[in-house]
Structure prediction request, 112 residues.
Amino acid sequence: MAVVAKRAGKPVVEGPLWARNWAKFGKAGDRAQLDDILVFHRARGSGHVGLYVGEDYCAFHVLGGSQSDDVTITQIARDRCIAIRWPVYRKAPVTAKPVQLAASGALSTNEA
Prediction:
């Protein structure tokens, strides 16, 4: 995630390898929009971070690395999301909006 933020000209959070630190990125969002950063809880206090690409009625569809040892789009249950973070824009792009997708496939339970 640090490489993505840096290439986009956005500040990188302190301790970027700890997923939960991304809950300090940008500003808090109340509803996920395309390209927002989503932070999720995992077992034993760990976390997962990824980019929002869409949502269905029970899950966020998230682009991330280290999802089954690959870069993939994975469906993660909404109730695991602990932070929605918006990049700070001078003017938000027109694509910064929620994206509704069809529910298909299985929910991820462990992105490792």
Remarks:
- Strands lie at 27-28, 37-41, 47-55, 59-64, 72-77, 81-86.
- The mean pLDDT is 92.
- The longest strand covers residues 47-55.
- Residues 26-90 form a domain with the endopeptidase fold (from Nostoc punctiforme) fold (CATH 3.90.1720.10).
